[in-house]
Predict the structure of Efflux RND transporter permease subunit.
Amino acid sequence: GMDLHRITLGALIIALGLLVDDAIIAVEMMVVKMEQGWDRVKAASFAWESTAFPMLTGTLVTAVGFLPIGFANSSVGEYAGGIFWVVAIALIASWFVAVIFTPYIGVKLLPNFNHGKHNHDPHAIYETRMYRGLRRVIEWCVRRRGTVVLATIGVFVLSVVGFGHVQQQFFPLSERPELFLQLRLPEGTAFNVTKESVKKAEALLKDDKDIATYTTYVGQGSPRFWLGLNPQLPNEAFSETVIVSKDVAARERIKARLEKAVADGALSEARVRVDRFNFGPPVGFPVQFRVVGPDTTTVRDIAYKVREVMRGNDKVVDPHLDWNEQTPYLKLAVDQDRARALGLTPQDISQSLAMLISGVQVTTLRDGIEKVGVVARAVPSERLDLGRVGDLTIYSRGGVAVPLSQIAKIEYAHEEPILWRRNRDMAITVRADIVDGVQAPDVTNAIWPKLEGIRKSLQPAYRIEIGGAIEESEKGNASINKLFPLMVIGMLTLLMIQLQSFSRLVLVFLTAPLGIVGASLGLNVAGSPFGFVALLGLIALAGMIMRNSVILVDQIETDVEHGLTRREAIVEATVRRARPVVLTALAAILAMIPLSRSAFWGPMAITIMGGLFVATFLTLLFLPGLYALWFRKSLDERGEGVVPAPAQPGQIRHAPPLATAAE
């Protein structure tokens, strides 16, 4: 029941690169057996028997890798949760196709490679120059297993350090052509005054040829037509104009012209914000620091200090407080004794003032088929002039008329128009935009240490918190992290069912972090930021790597059962599984190329491409070395099967013809 949109379409493209993996493995196994002289039907049957269940385990492990985002109870789960469902359904469907339909197609379409020569040497295809070179490399990895494992650990540590040089990001800027232009006048500004400022802003947009259309909302923000749009509270001093440009390049030109006009003094009566839309859940301003405490005045004073520190960072644009200015108000101190002496109650005074200033409907008139209310109130010269409020006449229920100034003292003062609270404490947010080309988490992390002096001087009841993109990112990551145990348990259960050995399970699981090596390298080379979407790619990458490891470990154990020593099985199984492992990795990498140029999917595509490319070769080298190190005491013990003696001394014992095992 999901719609086709950016998230589900991207998930389909991701699934496209993964779902061909099962088909590649099945077809490759058929081709290998046919090259060894088998007929098509027997080769198809063997492909099913030898790969179906390892492929199913690998497929489910890959799908489980996307599980946290599918069940994340957060705004990011709402935004990107469709990835799990689309990828999981596509991968499971691809497994059925690979084990049922692909062998049938192979029987119908694959050529007879050996033209009926059934006595063909089954190992000849692995004796080419390339395979002999690969065999020598793997034999070296087995002999130097300690060196290989330590070297891999060293590369992994360096890649983790390299991640520290990758820019951090929550969600990237949208590629939509819209801009929004916000005007925020001093608090308490009347609607008509705001409207006049809006007319000035629209004059800047009127003859711009890069603009397709624009719509202005005065006194409120635009409707939430975009999931990442931050809703605004109704406010007569606020307006928002949604500008639709002709394309993304035009959007940037419009933004630059508006910012220049504002810098030259246009719309000086308002705080002006020109910005693009962002992918992901709404954040508001990218850099935010929240000052929390019990006293309004103290909190505001601390917030002013935070604002000054933020102004010292040249990456920050227009730091300000979300409480804005205090607004003037009029307060009546009623003389209760005098009011009672005249027969007036506080309710009488309140109702009279409401009628005189705001108006009260006294009757209705019929205008055709409609009824029109008649409102009674004081004339504008009396009700709009605050200096004449004391002259308003108050009537008691007994008909006594008294000037307001005779029964009440009129006081003028200022107050906060809106009080923001957090956990019942006063909370002022100091917020700001950032210049183009930098990431909000990097700017926030640069400012945070400079607030150390302010934080240390605070009383125990007061504190400063980080908000903005970092806070939303932490919320999203927290919702994902809650489901990590479920994901790990699911993966471990699937691996244990397939491998039926704790040792082999640990071996497979230790290959999962190898994706970090290529991901770190790819992100640093491409200059792409690491954000929430890239994190999803890194999680999914672990499942893809373990999928290949499951198939390789299963092949090693099969060869051991057929009579090879573990040393021989490690080498020969890795040689035989190298081609399908590399092909499936390349298929997934090529599927990511269309996404690599997308602002939204690009970091994830680069993470998967770089991680899978490097991890594939590390798996073919590191896993044999790790396997040999783990089973070092039984490397030369032979399995229970029978292997023909080598024809010559020193000849490598190849894996036995698997036809015997299949039969």
User: Anything to note?
Assistant: DSSP finds 24 helices and 15 strands in the chain.
